[in-house]
Amino acid sequence: MKTYHRTVAIERGQDRAPDGVLEFALSSEMPVERWFGTEVLSHAPEAVNLERLADGRHPLLLNHDTDRQIGVVERAWLDNGRLRVAARFSRSPLGQEIKQDVDDNIRQLVSVGYFIDQVKEEKSVDGAPQVRLMTGDEFEREMRSQHGEGFARSLGEGEARKADDKPPVYTVTRWTPFEASVVPVPADTTVGKGRAQESAPPAPEAEATPQPIVITENRKMTDEVKDPNGARVAKLVELGATYSKYVSQQDVAKACRDGMSVEQFLEVIVDKQQTKHTDTRALDLGLTKKEAQRYSFGKLIRALTLRNDDPSVMKEIAFELECSRAMADSLGITPEGVFVPYEIMRRDFNVGTATEAGNLVPTDLRTDLYVDALRAAMVVPQLGVRVLAGLTGNIDIPRKVTPSTLAGVTEIGSASETAPVTGKLTLSPKRVSAYVEPSKQAIIQSAIALEGMIRDDLVTGAALQIENYMIQGSSAANGTGLIYRSGLGTVTEQTNGTNLIWDHLVDVETAAAAANAEPDRLSGYLINTQTRGKAKKVQRGTNLPFIWENGGMPLNGYRAAVTNNVPANLTKGTSTTVASALLFGSDWSMAVLGFFGGVDVTVDPYTKADTGQVKITLNQFWDYTVRQPAAIVVRKDILTA
Questions:
Q1: What is the distance in angstroms between the CA of the first residue and the CA of the last residue of the chain?
Q2: Are residues 312 and 170 in the same domain?
């Protein structure tokens, strides 16, 4: 039967043990993600066979080496979801040396050796839960057949997660611990931040016994977290399992150990979600600067336009097509047309610079005189809205709806039970599309010259449309924009609208603060150009400065993002299609904007064939939500005429 090991930090008991005896938690029900899936050791009384470990004769070893016994496990017992032991160190030089290292916080990890007697497997098959029981031998045979002899070799992301975001969960419902070991802390950055490598066996001596694999969690030694009813830890573990795509078992362990509340851990999860997706460099293909310059969006469009007219042109875009395939593999999504790497869509392409595009533009085309259409400005990212990029499926964002409520009681009065109310928000894909229709002749004759224009027109157009929907969307396809979203902060509006005055700024700021959304560094206004113009003409009061001030904090000491995506044609009572919206966010990071998949570009040379045009379409899937709606206040009655 295979020997298993699980390593944890020494969690000391209270100082009640006799000299030379160390009491500590040896194992817990903390889920551990292994190569084959997530393993949970049940610590129910009927699950743990303590006949061996609790007999007072089984060893305390160094690195699971049976030739290096440094003490004995005198007692073993279950305590609130943990296996605890009292171990006495040997008086031998080695035993005293290791004991001193433990006392000095040099040796910080202990590991339990155990046999698996029974396992419960839980997984999802076609969306339906499936549970089955296996003996330890059956489990080992199946794991070996699926994952090889090293199926239990390390912590962290394994084979199961490569094929499924939610690997199977194996709960060990019966197991037999038989030894405890003190192990080193061999940190290995190659397997991921906060994880540790497999513990290496001691240097081989003559005919040394082969050592089993030891899995470490690289957790810091701390005093035991006192959590009498285990409810907090249980909830943290549950959240860790639910959001295992974003937080590791080390994150869960640290939260349990540091006494983190459920609400605080929810914040950690949201931060992890942002970290995982906001930095879109993780979605890049890793193209070198030379490769990025080699990539030609114009050549790609030209080849896809002429694929039936001249099959040889497809050879010219072998590199571009390989990039699309690599992105599809990374995202797990098949594009309608071709995926364009994020680094290409971000790449600077300045026709006015000779060394970049200037020398490639035929002078008779005079593309240097091309002037883009006038557009609204895209501003929400600069306000601090959280951007999650590269999402591949619906994403749940946990949030605390209402906090726990405390109440005063008499000296010996009973406290009332209270608990925070939590919930979740879901981002699900909505499609936005932009297209351009250059002539086929223009593409054939000047693909390189048109590259920057086409790319910028598509990408900028799609981005601005997404922001427009985020602010004033009002349909199922476009979603509900901020100005129509329920739950956001509000102020008393005038029946037929009102001219902008200083009080309006104070009112929206006060509304946010009254909802406990006190303004911070990510506070600011979101307005349109007409409101800005009005603010430059209206004084705060008689002989006082104008409402709009120069500088980076122009409205009452707060930032102001200005875009005509904020509507100026709203109706308020008798004021028809002339009212403007005004938004104030005390913390704009409470708004979350998500992008699903990659930038998908299709080329259609047929629909407009009669006019000799080619339709080039960009598709991007997106959604947004607001984690704490009260942090954003909206009013829709500002008259600026």
A1: 83
A2: no
